[in-house]
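Hey all, sorry for the wall of text incoming. These are the six entities for the joint prediction.
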Amino acid sequence: MSEHPISRYPVPEVKDLPDDLREKVLAIQESSGFVPNVFLALAHRPDEMRAFFDYHDALMGREGNLTVADKEMIVVATSADNSCQYCVVAHGAILRIRAKNPLLADQVATNYRKADITDRQRAMLDFALKVSNEARSVNESDSGVLRSHGFDDEDIWDIAAITAFFGLSNRMANFTAMRPNDEFYGMGRGMPADS
Amino acid sequence: MSEHPISRYPVPEVKDLPDDLREKVLAIQESSGFVPNVFLALAHRPDEMRAFFDYHDALMGREGNLTVADKEMIVVATSADNSCQYCVVAHGAILRIRAKNPLLADQVATNYRKADITDRQRAMLDFALKVSNEARSVNESDSGVLRSHGFDDEDIWDIAAITAFFGLSNRMANFTAMRPNDEFYGMGRGMPADS
Amino acid sequence: MSEHPISRYPVPEVKDLPDDLREKVLAIQESSGFVPNVFLALAHRPDEMRAFFDYHDALMGREGNLTVADKEMIVVATSADNSCQYCVVAHGAILRIRAKNPLLADQVATNYRKADITDRQRAMLDFALKVSNEARSVNESDSGVLRSHGFDDEDIWDIAAITAFFGLSNRMANFTAMRPNDEFYGMGRGMPADS
Amino acid sequence: MSEHPISRYPVPEVKDLPDDLREKVLAIQESSGFVPNVFLALAHRPDEMRAFFDYHDALMGREGNLTVADKEMIVVATSADNSCQYCVVAHGAILRIRAKNPLLADQVATNYRKADITDRQRAMLDFALKVSNEARSVNESDSGVLRSHGFDDEDIWDIAAITAFFGLSNRMANFTAMRPNDEFYGMGRGMPADS
Amino acid sequence: MSEHPISRYPVPEVKDLPDDLREKVLAIQESSGFVPNVFLALAHRPDEMRAFFDYHDALMGREGNLTVADKEMIVVATSADNSCQYCVVAHGAILRIRAKNPLLADQVATNYRKADITDRQRAMLDFALKVSNEARSVNESDSGVLRSHGFDDEDIWDIAAITAFFGLSNRMANFTAMRPNDEFYGMGRGMPADS
Amino acid sequence: MSEHPISRYPVPEVKDLPDDLREKVLAIQESSGFVPNVFLALAHRPDEMRAFFDYHDALMGREGNLTVADKEMIVVATSADNSCQYCVVAHGAILRIRAKNPLLADQVATNYRKADITDRQRAMLDFALKVSNEARSVNESDSGVLRSHGFDDEDIWDIAAITAFFGLSNRMANFTAMRPNDEFYGMGRGMPADS
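and here's what came out:
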């Protein structure tokens, strides 16, 4: 286990968290086997942490046409473009698991244009990158392109909102030098490729 | 009153909002005299809206060394850099009022480097812009510069987090083509300059 | 009234200007009620000032298909992109007055793509920004797009030349830290919106 | 002699120019042996042309501490960065002649950082490029650097103003596809290198 | 095993390669257990392939102060910045193995500024990125910084040359859509972290 | 003859080169009348030099549909964009001679979009610049455009590979501050224009 700090800011102990947050963190530890560092790093500011995870859950847990793998792909592609180590490593692991594909996350992180994805997914990621880098120019014609790939207006909101939310997350992670847990790097790599 | 749509997405009527959000919106209408469009545009997704305003309030309402005018200045400078019409116009109005200065918002929006602000505020905005555009390179030496201007580590977190949160807001506003209320443009312009 | 310097360079008194320039400045003072600072800041170099205003007048005073509001919109959009405080504030005021619209200048300065303008005007500003930022790639196909919006070749020259001239102006204003007169900020804001 | 058009716009015959401009053009033809195309291309708009050359002469003809070669170097370096064929080729010729150096113009056009120039000249060109590309950030500290190389405030204005004026010229030349005269390419190349 | 093409260009069979190249490829297959796709994709042009691997071997096999892990780190950091999937995935595997560290490659690929590396290595990668993106500005002062970290002039040449060579490689891999072998993704991930 | 160093690194004497390289250099001196400095600057590392020239010769000497002038045009356009003085000056000379056109090299170096070239050549250079600056986005649709101009897949490989190779060369030349021989500047300028 590495001994590097997980944030440039003080990190509370789980036992010292407010009740609701401690409960949330213990639940995730139960299900994942470890506490992802984002929960500890953000717990430095409990009010912001609550809003952060409410926002996260509203977006990532929402039922819709985007699959969980689609959503994680958006996170990985935009976080890689923002050079966010925490999000690329942690959500890369989730993407491998959700997509049941050990190659996809590294492909999407490095150059999604060359990844083993569908044209529809490529259009989704093109749009996510535009929202991330050049939202000023987003307009109805972008929605037109996405609709031609079968996305409806709620899907398009999802793509934009996930991108915007992880843009916030990427900036906080880079600002705090948030460290991905060592566990994430190897997760989901054992499955047969493209199976 | 203009007849332009306030979002590219459907906008609910206040009476149709979930109770907690309707109450929140009516309270702001009471205090401001009108409902800022961001409340209506985001109400298309109540769960996301709740988290959005919880996050907003956690940051903007937090007690600390940054004045309200400092915080609004961060919002205006980074939102202008992101070409976000809603945030520049709405928070420009708040900045004029909070700083009791009718010139400051337009100066900060156009080029904060030439605005009537202190060196400390310029250092604050330099850092906010770095978090917004190049968070990948933020490190301890940035904190060192800010500390030399009297900011402590919690102030620095505030600057970064406000920037990151409004980066999300800017992307959503540009994505939805969120329209600032006509009322904002003229607010706070009647005070004597530099008084 | 603010006490900030209006330029990083020495600013002559009106009474000390060469006769022709003093006359010009007094005439504008008569018509506007105050002397716009650009006249004082540039008077540090009378020969350059004469050429500057001759160029300005040749472009802005020329009869053609562009309305005065169209021309001011070009100035505001390109000057905002160049972060020129003087030109955005001063020409923003003129744009509000000429367009009889108190909202338009702030919209165009922040993100003309979302402003209350026509498709024809948006094409005009797209081209102006291309001339400003990427003149190396301008070619006949740009003129084709503009012609499809009803502009003729002389209109297109006007758009390009106004952009190029204010590019000069923006650089001089940023270099000298030219300060907009306090009067400009509030001018033209009293009209009913969209009337 | 090449048969390519010298502008995308109509070019008047010298004999059809207004008297003052025809005289000016004939004088330059007398001294240079040919009419530089900029005079013909800009003559499409006589009023703008007059102001253009008045501005040009005010800057390039002004007595000061910058040598003629210094000024031409500024023109070549900034015009190359703006990809302006006319200005690089025409002023490259003038630079070779004024500096009595057949190598300098091509060096400065390609990468002034590696050209056979003094540290003082390199600081001058660093500043010119900053005014050209990032005037928003120019401030007193830039002047401080230049003063440490022996430039006074009037020299610094000259550097900024020449850069700003040729920024205008570069945009008009790229917009009109202004063609450099064939004569310029070979001028000043016959002198012994570094003599 | 995936069935995706490994290049947009025809890929020869190993048995059809010229003798010297076939021998080279069989040797690497012997030592690695598989043929890295770069050998097959580049074999479309045997003469270029020979020069490519001679250059590669001259740089990567040269004895000097840079460790093999240092060299691979340069490859991974600059290839990630160039969005080169093949080089990041293949050399990421080699970096994990050479550094005996299963985390390092993903850290360096995403944001080397936050990776578990020394200040000396960070200075090395800062310089590599400058050579990759802005070689025009490289000069003696860069060497001064590197010397202060203990690099000598031959080490500095190695950093620059490895960067320049993989810049070529990145462009060819992106152009041909060269696909990393599935084997690379998981290699070197089994070691204890930070051991 | 200038006395400036031709590299920031030690430059061997021709007589001290390994036999094969000395022979190569003497042959080029015989045919050109002088030794281009690239041979001396790179001779600091003989193994790299051998691979460099093998690669160069494999690409530039290959028979195909690209003319020698086409290839040199690619070198000049991409090297100018990379601000590489050595390659622009040296290959500019070769381009003038091969194309028998004294104007073309300076036109292509400054702004190939305005050069006296065919639409086919402009498409070739558009693609070369894309490979140089944004290889991550190159895909089949770029090949489609080039095929519509009559290029076949081997020509397209040539364009990409020449661009990639000179990208390496540009970085090494900028890194070493490689100086073009004075002889190159004037070569090929004596021919009648457009003959």
